[in-house]
């Protein structure tokens, strides 16, 4: 699905940090580097996400994952916001501890089948009824591919509500600077000592670089040859796949 | 619903022309003025729209109505476009004569209940599969009010597809200049001799003025007091209601 996730790889001696999106996580960790997985997944809780990756052979636990929903929860608590949720059913447990009575903002995620006409109208009515509408979006992706074809992502529905309410959404998740900063803070690592590895030229590479990190693009997954001519974003290096990225970084330790 | 419609009122001697949105149509016509109803209604055929207005006491026939769907049909024919329709079921008959096989564009209207997740994904796939996506939108309204509450209008869903496909929709209907020009051409009247009456500051008043017409805003329907401080659009005059507009224009004949 959507750029499944990646990690930050960290050597305690102030060396490199790495963000990756496929296994090899054990190899990284045994080298004494810190690793973190950052995902824009909002169709499932972190628990479910981690189980899926464990099933694929990843050495990963829930507290190694940076994801949009917990980041949104922090914002909601800090600003005493009570959300109306327009999200996937499987994501709702992430908001279990959040007061949702008498909502004063809308949180939109990749709600998939929950993006019904009725649900969109309902979220819209909550926003338009506010003096200053607050819309928090768990990502700004345009679309993604599933086995049964391309699907509109949360960004498209975010734009619909933005236009209808004449408001600008606050985006949580990649490529938001604050999202990468959270991941770094959770590891206790400065951006100069971290390396991001991802397949998405804008969300992974561009977002990390804007935050002061270096970033490698893997030529797998979402990668397209035309990414190498991107008008604004240039990775620090290309690698053919994650294994190659890990090799290079381990060699330089 | 959405600025139900209005008309162009025309005196054959090169006098005034009027756009209105409620009855009084008989009074106007018997004064020798030409009248035309311009609507952004895309939830019904013109036939259905006219029947509804006749039921409310309007003297109106189908050939006096300028509406987005027939305007879109003209564009489709001129440019040999075969649409994938994302519209209300009741609007489909307006496209009866249009070839819809192997679509090379998408036409979006206020599809209401047809704005399902599946239908939006399907329209998106048609667009993203094209080398240069063509999206034709029957209006750009943000929202409107129905008896059971506010509803997102076609403009919101248009924005979602625009963002997902990185494309700009071609908007048919008010406030598009071409839409007003069609209405004028259908009456055989130059813009300088036409007056628009409407309740929507942007779609009715702004659109007509950009086309060289004068425009009155009625202080009824969609009108809001804050419209009188609109940053870009200023009507040629305000009237308290349509009856007052008709009075003033008849007096000046």
Automatic annotation (TrEMBL), chains A, B:
InterPro entries attached to this UniProt entry: HAD-like_sf, HAD-SF_hydro_IIA, HAD_sf, LHPP/HDHD2
The reaction(s) this protein catalyses: diphosphate + H2O = 2 phosphate + H(+)
Location of this chain's protein in the cell: Cytoplasm; Nucleus
Taxonomic superkingdom: Eukaryota
Class of the enzyme per the UniProt entry, highest EC level: hydrolase
The EC number(s) this enzyme carries: 3.6.1.1
Any single Gene Ontology cellular-component annotation: cytosol
UniProt keyword list: Cytoplasm, Hydrolase, Magnesium, Metal-binding, Nucleus
CDD domains according to UniProt: HAD_PPase
Keyword Ribosomal protein: no
Family annotation (SUPFAM superfamilies): HAD-like
One Pfam family, short name: Hydrolase_like
Family membership: Belongs to the HAD-like hydrolase superfamily.
Family annotation (NCBIfam families): HAD-SF-IIA-hyp3
Described function: Phosphatase that hydrolyzes imidodiphosphate, 3-phosphohistidine and 6-phospholysine. Has broad substrate specificity and can also hydrolyze inorganic diphosphate, but with lower efficiency.
Classification via PANTHER family: 4-NITROPHENYLPHOSPHATASE-RELATED (PTHR19288), PHOSPHOLYSINE PHOSPHOHISTIDINE INORGANIC PYROPHOSPHATE PHOSPHATASE (PTHR19288:SF44)
Protein name: Phospholysine phosphohistidine inorganic pyrophosphate phosphatase
Source organism of the structure: Buteo japonicus
């Amino acid at each position: 699905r959507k750029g499944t996730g990646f990690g930050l790889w960290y050597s305690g001696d102030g060396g490199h940090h790495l963000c990756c999106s496929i296994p090899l996580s054990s190899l990284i960790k045994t080298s004494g580097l810190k690793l973190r997985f950052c995902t824009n997944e909002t169709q499932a809780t972190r628990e479910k996400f981690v189980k899926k990756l464990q099933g694929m052979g990843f050495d990963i636990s829930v507290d190694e994952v940076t994801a949009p929903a917990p980041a949104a929860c922090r914002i909601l608590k800090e600003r005493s916001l009570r959300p109306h949720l327009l999200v996937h059913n499987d994501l709702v447990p992430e908001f279990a501890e959040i007061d949702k009575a008498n909502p004063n903002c809308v949180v939109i995620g990749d709600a998939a089948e929950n993006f019904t006409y009725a649900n969109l109208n309902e979220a819209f009515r909550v926003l338009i009824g506010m003096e200053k509408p607050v819309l928090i979006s768990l990502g700004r992706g345009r679309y993604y591919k599933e086995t049964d074809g391309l699907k509109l992502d949360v960004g498209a529905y975010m734009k619909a509500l933005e236009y209808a309410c004449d408001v600008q959404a606050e985006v949580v998740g990649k490529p938001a600077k604050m999202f990468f900063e959270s991941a770094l803070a959770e590891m206790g690592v400065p951006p100069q000592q971290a390396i991001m590895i991802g397949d998405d030229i804008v969300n992974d590479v561009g977002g990390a670089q804007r935050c002061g990190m270096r970033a490698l693009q893997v030529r797998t997954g979402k990668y397209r040859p035309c990414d190498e001519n991107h008008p604004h974003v240039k990775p620090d290096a290309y690698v053919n796949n994650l294994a190659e990225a890990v090799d290079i970084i381990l060699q330089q330790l």
